[in-house]
Amino acid sequence: MSIEVSALERFAPGRRKPLLSKVSLDVPDSAFVALVGPSGAGKTTLLRAIAGLDPYQGGTVSLDGQVMKDVSARAGQVGFVFQNYALFPHMTAARNIAFGLDILPAARRPTRERINERVRELLELMQIPDLGGAYPARLSGGQRQRVALARALATGPRVLLLDEPFGALDPIVRRSIRSWLRDLHDRLGLTTILVTHDQEEALDVADRIVVMQDGQIVQDASPVALDRSPATEFVMEFLGEAVSFPGDVRSGRMVPHDPLVQPFAVPETVVDGSAVAMIRPYEIQLVPAQPGQEALLKAAPRGARNGYRHYVLNSAGHSIPFFLPQDGVDHALEGAALDVSRARLFRDGLACL
Ligand SMILES: Nc1ncnc2c1ncn2[C@@H]1O[C@H](COP(=O)(O)OP(=O)(O)OP(=O)(O)O)[C@@H](O)[C@H]1O
């Protein structure tokens, strides 16, 4: 089921800035989208508006091209799991899962046998077949999240909205539950929007990442496109550690101010003027310094990871982290300069095209 959000606006009393300012978003059928952004960007506000849980003052939300007016219009089609959407503590896992079916009007409610069968199916699907009789207090965090997901899926929704559902889980459980969630999404043919604070989680699980800032969408792209071409300096920094090298573009070459960094070619379309090159530490490479160029003398080792050693050097007033393969490090450092030709270029905070 596709989701189309068009020019959505939400205002709050006593607040001048809109919580959502003309947000538009198209999520095709079967897509898995991660919604990321700093705290207060409007992610939860947008998700709740899509779910129909909060009012909005302008714009529309459509499912499969049908404009949805309120939460009842979405009933049964949209399942949601919110971080604070706790299980009912006085009900077993099975009754929690059945809840959405139990409260249906009599005419639409399946028989008791059919409901119990559906609960059994969902417990199987969640890989917790024996926990139907357990009360929430007895379940681990990961098991509770599976029950909450089962409850959201009980009515057979085609859209799943998840707001930080794994926030409280430890990193190992979190990693395994998210790949399981992705499998589930694929198997059930769902359309899923996941709000997460964890960039790695977003890049790992989603086929599209939507970055929000100040109640607006600043970029909507695949993980690969987002990494290769962040639209703004903010997006570049938000998605992971980045190092900035201010400099000048002159006739198709970027010349960083830092003397340790080699100039590099940029597309002819980038006009001359000041610019900032931004790069991930693992993309920085060492190359032999050109004759007459300042060369690296030393860098402080800072531990190792995955066969690479982490270094930090101080140059031109700021520290530059980078990684080198662990073999042959020492002679690679001496007399070297930094190659940052894999950097993205920005001007006034926006990507240079
Ligand atoms: N009902 C409301 N009335 C007034 N302000 C609100 C209301 N709901 C949210 N806000 C404000 O709107 C902004 C966006 O909040 P929202 O919860 O959507 O952000 P978020 O991106 O989900 O943040 P977080 O990552 O911290 O959960 C925040 O500044 C918040 O204080």
TrEMBL record:
Residues 3-239 form the ABC transporter domain. The keyword Protease does not apply. InterPro entries: AAA+_ATPase, ABC_SmlMolc_Importer, ABC_transporter-like_ATP-bd, ABC_transporter-like_CS, P-loop_NTPase. The keyword Repressor does not apply. It comes from the Bacteria. Gene3D superfamilies: P-loop containing nucleotide triphosphate hydrolases (3.40.50.300). It holds the Pfam family ABC_tran. GO terms for molecular function: ATP binding. SMART domains: AAA (SM00382). Keywords: ATP-binding, Nucleotide-binding, Transport. This is ATP-binding cassette domain-containing protein. It comes from Acetobacter suratthaniensis. The lineage of its organism: Bacteria, Pseudomonadati, Pseudomonadota, Alphaproteobacteria, Acetobacterales.
